Amino acid sequence: GATGSGKSSTFNALTGLDLSSVGVRRPTTSWASACIWGQEGAEELLEWLGIPPRHQTMRDSMLDTGRQDEALQGVVLLDLPDHDSTEVSHHLEVDRLVVLADLLVWVLDPQKYADAAIHDRYFAPLASHRDVMVVVLNHIDTVPAEKRDAMIADVRRLLAADGLDEVPVIAISARHGEGVDELRGL
Questions:
Q1: What are phi and psi for residue 57, nearest 5 degrees?
Q2: Angstrom distance (rounded) from CA 166 to CA 149
Q3: What is the CATH number of the domain that holds 27?
């Protein structure tokens, strides 16, 4: 997703931990980081993906006193930098990892969901990956309730123009938890 769309906040909401820094300074996320549920095969996968150990967190470590989430067992969740960052290295990291992911969760926000940068550079070219994509419209809590359905419909319209009419769209508020359980359920 774009800068400020709430990728790291969504990552933190899904993990149940404050693993990724969030803030108003942009860009905030400079490298990919991972949260892992279950160690089996994870080390090899993360090495293949090029995620260094210092950017990896085992969700089920002995320090984790949170709930055990069996549904996520075997999941490796990545938080990536902004696709539209002013830092070229961030674009390269995103480009490198999106083609390797088993499931792409694109985080959009009400201000930038229609930006050509994501539609032209990622959505349209990755239309053949439609079966492994989900679009999250974050910050839905900032949209008046009576305008939410229209905004979600507009996101769907734009995705259809990119050849992604079957891609699920989930409205969430990572900050307040709205819609996060639905996303986690995928």
A1: -130, 125
A2: 17
A3: 3.40.50.300
**Which among 88, 23, 93, 8 has a CA at the least distance from the CA of 51?**
93
Peptide linkage before 27 cis (omega within 30 of 0): yes
Quick one: average pLDDT of 107-132? 95
Tens digit of each residue's pLDDT (9 = 90 or more) over 52-76: 999 998 887 655 655 566 778 899 9
90 lies in some domain? yes
Please give the single-letter amino acid code of residue 50.
Answer: G
The predicted model gives 12-22 an average pLDDT of 85
Selection from 141, 174, 143, 137 nearest residue 157 by Cα: 137
What total number of domains does the chain contain?
A: 1
Does pLDDT of 145 surpass 60?
Answer: yes
Q: Which residues pair with 177 in a beta bridge?
A: none
53 found inside a domain? yes
CA angle 95, 20, 164 (to 5 degrees): 40
Q: Is residue 1 one of the residues assigned to a domain?
A: no
Split at pLDDT 50, 70, 90, the class of 17 is confident
**Domain ranges, residue 121:** 7-184
How confident is the prediction for the chain on average, in pLDDT? 88
Establish if 28 belongs to a structural domain. yes
Q: Which residues contact 22 (CB under 8 A, 6 or more apart)?
A: 6, 8, 9, 12, 28
